[in-house]
Amino acid sequence: MNAISTAAEPGRSPVLAKLSSWYASSGDWLKTSVVSLVGIVVFLLVWSAAAQNINTSLGAFPGPTAVAGQFKSLYAEHTAERAKAEAFYERQEARNAKRMEADPDYQPKIRKYTGKETFLDQIGTSLITVASGFLLAAVIAIPLGIAIGLNKNLNTAINPIIQTFKPVSPLAWLPLVTMVVSAVYTSDDPMFAKSFVNSLITVSLCCLWPMLINTSVGVASIEQDLVNVSKVLRLSALTHVRKIVLPASVPMIFTGMRLSLGIAWMVLIAAEMLAQNPGLGKFVWDEFQNGSSESLSRIMAAVFTIGFIGFLLDRFMLQLQKLVSWDKSSAVR
Amino acid sequence: MSFILNIDHVDMEFPTPTGPFTALKDVSLNIAKGEFISLIGHSGCGKSTVLNIVAGLHQATKGGVVLNGKEVTEPGPERAVVFQNHSLLPWLSAYENVELAVQQVFGKTKSKQETREWIEYNLQLVHMDHAMDKRPGEISGGMKQRVGIARALAMQPDVLLMDEPFGALDALTRAHMQDSLMEIQNELNNTVIMITHDVDEAVLLSDRIVMMTNGPAATVGEILEVNLERPRNRLALADDPEYNRLRSEVLKFLYEKQRKVEPLRGQKDAEKTKPQKTPEKTAAA
Predict the structure, then answer these.
(1) pTM of the model
(2) Residues of chain A with C-beta less than 8 angstroms from the C-beta of B163
(3) Matching Pfam families, A to Z (chain A) (predicted)?
(4) Given the DSSP bridges, would you call strands B21-32 and A55-56 parallel, antiparallel or unpaired?
């Protein structure tokens, strides 16, 4: 190695030498970012080459440029739709003002703009749905997990049920959830759309388990010495849970929450497709049904969006864990 | 002499798949107020079991423990325990660890100001007032054990129970901790039961050394009175004939009268497996 590099030295251009010394002197992060950039470029090239060779009934498979173009037009559609909505409300206000002038007793009617959701609206809906489903699951799973972790008999009783339900696909739950919700959730003026409730419950049902299992394992594996400290201090059951059990199992609870949030986001897309909740899942489904020449590139844009948001959600949980947990080493990656 | 703590004919059996295992048989011991007792014996002789029964973490199968005229049935802060591996709550600072104990014991009787002063006083006793806001992960093993002692002292226990408190520390730190403990003992004159493996530690710190026979069915073998004058100084005592006599008494008990008969397990296994294993070993080497 050494011999070769010294032999090559005189022939090296000054630019290359400068570049390599700069490369060596800057920190590790630079190396990492250069390497990952290379990875991305290679991926784009392979994708682009492969896409040209795949012909579907909707035309060639979209390459990177087509998808990038779609991002632009999706954003343009969003701003156009917003402008339309604003114009609608302005017209409505002007009309109402006019009628008030003519007739002071007139009660103005405010109608909502009913244009179609844009891609950004759908992202928002998806985020709200996943957050609600995840929170519902957490509210059930964490207290139940603590109870299971503290009580061996309860664990023995519930464990088979957990193990049976854990691997069930959201697609199996959804029809059941849909039927139950439409039977039970009846109201003339529902606060939430049924499609939203269906997706939310399906998400909860599927992302409950990792949180439940990790919480119970975390609670059950508290050091006996810490439990003895609690006994010597004669902490009440509630104080024991609050001061010893909960903080001791926070790292495990967060591990479970991160797994759960990942699952929730994956499940959500499937649930939205079938429940027709106006989120990213519905976007994908609608584009698939639409079958225009642009559909595939729009779906591909959604795929990247879904992936990137999933990544951000995971980073968010990691930051939250770092903020809350005393055990910094458990929140490294 | 009036006794504060009576361990009265205690038997301890543990259930095992092959029938009950008798760990302790007829252990009796009376301890006076302000006395420092060491329990010494080979590992597995049930020293910790005795301590756990006094702490209330185990229930004796027969007999019982009476503290201040009341029978011990459950753990409580009047019998504070210093655990071998500190068992501080890793998410709390040194101050907060002691605070949890103080709040629990004196929460109703001490004002906020008094509580704070009491926590700080106890951390000063163990020379940890400079690191009150450090978490266990940020301080050394010896310092953690100091905080553990401060937490136990802060409960103002009737009896302080120490389960090999310095067993996990290196020799120098251990000596330092022993000196600290003597200093504290000089000031507070607590009643202490300490488990130890260390003969020097036992002689240096104790008023009486309780030597236990080997298990199963371990019991109190001999009790050695240590009448060395306090305060004791480890350097001065090194040449003291009485100190050395006591030391050799304990050693004789442990290594002549109660010598562990079983050979070291590693040796035994090696001998057993030698003939078959030899070719593999040479191949691996």
Answers:
(1) 0.79
(2) none
(3) BPD_transp_1
(4) unpaired
Picking from A117, A145, A55, the residue whose alpha carbon sits closest to that of residue A277 is A117
Residues 228-257 of A with CB under 8 A from B: 228-229, 231-235, 239, 243-244, 247-248, 250
With beta carbons less than 8 A apart as the criterion, state whether B161 and B55 touch: yes
Chain A residues in contact with B76 (beta carbon < 8 A): 232, 234
| Half-sphere CA count of A96, side-chain side, radius 13 A | 11
pLDDT string in tens for chain A (333-residue length): 444 444 444 455 667 666 666 666 667 888 889 999 999 999 999 999 999 888 888 888 999 999 999 999 999 989 888 888 888 888 888 888 888 888 878 777 778 888 788 888 899 999 999 999 999 999 999 999 999 999 999 999 999 999 999 999 888 999 999 999 988 888 777 788 888 999 999 999 999 999 999 999 999 999 999 999 999 999 999 999 999 999 999 999 999 999 999 999 999 999 999 888 889 999 999 999 988 888 899 999 999 999 999 999 999 999 998 888 887 666 554
Q: Look at B104 and A235 and tell me if their CB atoms are within 8 Å.
A: yes
Rounded to 5 degrees, φ, ψ at B156 are 45, 65
Q: What would the two tokens of residue B48 be?
A: 């910790």
Q: Among residues A219, A198, A311, which one has the least CA distance to residue A265?
A: A311
Q: Which of A224, A231, A232, A246 to substitute to test the interface with B, most B CBs within 10 Å? A: A232
Verify whether the Cβ–Cβ distance A234 to B55 is below 8 Å. Answer: no
Among A82-86, A119-123, B259-263, B266-270, the minimum mean pLDDT is found in B266-270
Dist. CA B201–CA B203, nearest whole Å:
6
Whether A329 and chain B come into contact, CB under 8 Å, resolves to: no
User: What ranges do the domains of chain B cover?
Assistant: 3-78+159-260, 89-156
Question: Among B102, B143, B101, which Cα is nearest to B126's?
Answer: B143
> How far apart, in whole angstroms, are the C-alpha atoms of residue A297 and residue B183?
78
The answer to whether the beta carbons of residues B4 and B159 sit under 8 Å apart is yes
Considering the four listed CATH numbers 1.20.910.10, 3.40.50.300, 3.40.190.10, 3.40.50.1980, the one that applies to the domain covering B3-78+159-260 is 3.40.50.300
Backbone angles phi, psi at A177, to 5 degrees: -60, -45
Cβ proximity of A309 and A318 under 8 Å: no
Nearest chain A Cα distance for residue B130, angstroms: 21
Q: Does A323 touch chain B (CB under 8 A)?
A: no
User: What's the pLDDT band for B205 if we cut at 50, 70, 90?
Assistant: very high
**Residue A267, token pair as written in the block:** 């499940």
